[in-house]
Amino acid sequence: MRAYSIFAKVYDKFMAEIPYELWADMIGGCLKERGVADGELLELGCGTGSFTLLMAQRGYSVTGIDSSPDMLKQAKRRLSGSGREVRFGLQDMRALETDSVYRAAVSVCDSINYLRDCFDLRSAFECVHKALEKGGLFIFDMKTESFYKELGSTVYTDETDVGSYIWENDYDGELRDNAYYITFYLKSLFGLYRRYTEEHVQHAFTDGEVRECAAKSGFGFLGVYGMDLKSPPDWSAQRVYYILERI
Predict the structure, then answer these.
(1) DSSP state string for 79-142
(2) What is the distance between the alpha carbons of residues 76 and 96, in angstroms, rounded to a whole number?
(3) DSSP 3-state assignment of 29?
(4) How many helices (DSSP H) and strands (DSSP E) are in the chain?
(5) Dihedral sign, Cα of residue 178, residue 116, residue 209, residue 110
(6) Strand 177-187 and strand 193-203: pairing?
(7) pLDDT tier at 15 (50, 70, 90 boundaries)?
(8) What whole-number distance in Å separates Cα of residue 169 and Cα of residue 151?
(9) pTM for this predicted structure
(10) What is the spatial distance between Cα 86 and Cα 40, in angstroms, rounded to a whole number?
(11) Using one digit for the tens of pLDDT, what is the confidence trace for 218-232?
(12) What gap in Å lies between CA 185 and CA 196, rounded to an integer?
């Protein structure tokens, strides 16, 4: 099955430990420190809208885009009746089209790692560059190659009230691609379970590749950081955070 089809329906159940509040506080604080306390905000890979809602609650007019119609369906349900100014769009970040001009763009939860190579990365950067006002900021996270190497061929399992899953990993060090094979066993009628399988692939970009693609797309490089968006990056950690500026 395509990525984030069946998974979209149970994503929030199985991914309950994702630190959206921490990310929203951290990124919201970083934006405010750099003069972007409100206004139009673009979110790439908005998923089920958890981070989207938190940024809207912090005073931003958020537009969330995602390439999964199933994830967007869940996001729209989450934001329905919230009273927040949020728009959603079914778009691929590599071919983003918008008539709006944004003060900043953000992307969390390794959405950028779903881009498969530097051509894809540069395409996404160029689209974001066009969508931002001059001086607009682009803040995003990326999983590190160290994280994928550590995953190796690890297998994870989990169980919730809606079912269980088996999460298998396969990292190709030569291509720097990590394949996730996720098998779900979800409860259906009469206590029976139905089995579904999805494949996800993420790519580990080098710091040099990110910087080169950013520069060729018209961005100024403001820095790469650790978890607090202030300290130096720890390349052995799970994620690093980039800040770019449209010039």
Answers:
(1) HTTS---EEEEE--GGG---S--EEEEEE-TTGGGGS-SHHHHHHHHHHHHHHEEEEEEEEEEE
(2) 19
(3) helix
(4) 7, 11
(5) negative
(6) antiparallel
(7) confident
(8) 7
(9) 0.94
(10) 10
(11) 999 999 999 899 999
(12) 7
